[in-house]
Amino acid sequence: MVQARSWSHTTALPGEARSVSRARHFVCIHLVEHRLSHLVDDVQLVVSELAANAVRHARTPFKVILEKAENSVLLSVQDGS
C-alpha cells in the first residue's frame, strides 16, 4: 500500500472583509494543485465561514492553514483572539 504524501500550506491575511475571498482562493489553488478539486466547493464554504468569523469577531489578522496527512485534509483558521 502506498502512503499518501503529507503537505501543508499557510497564508497570513489581514482582518478585513476582502480577506475572506482571498482565503477561498488560497484553498482552491492548493486543493487543485494536489488533485483534490472534488473538495474545493466544500472547503471553500467552510473557510468562508471561519474567515468571516475571524474578520467579524476577532478583528485581527488571521492565518489559514490547509494540510494533508494520510487520508485526511485539515483546514484551520487561527486569529489573534
Task: Record the SSE blueprint.
Layout: E1 7-13, H1 18-33, H2 40-58, E2 62-69, E3 72-79
Antiparallel strand pairs: 1-2, 2-3
Summary tags:
alpha+beta; elongated; 81 residues; 2 helices; 3-stranded antiparallel β-sheet
List segments where confidence is low: pLDDT < 50 over at least 5 consecutive residues.
none
* Proportion of beta-strand residues: 25-35%
Largest sheet: 3 strands, antiparallel
Count of β-strands: 3
Folded structure, characterized:
With 81 residues, this protein is α+β, with helices and mostly antiparallel strands. The protein contains two helices and three strands, in the order βααββ. It has a three-stranded antiparallel sheet with strand order 1-2-3, with helices on one face. Helix 1 packs antiparallel against helix 2 (40-58). The radius of gyration is 13 Å and the shape is elongated. The mean pLDDT is 94.
Give a short summary of the structure.
The chain is α+β, with helices and mostly antiparallel strands. The chain has helices at 18-33, 40-58; strands at 7-13, 62-69, 72-79. A hairpin with a 2-residue loop joins strand 2 (62-69) and strand 3.
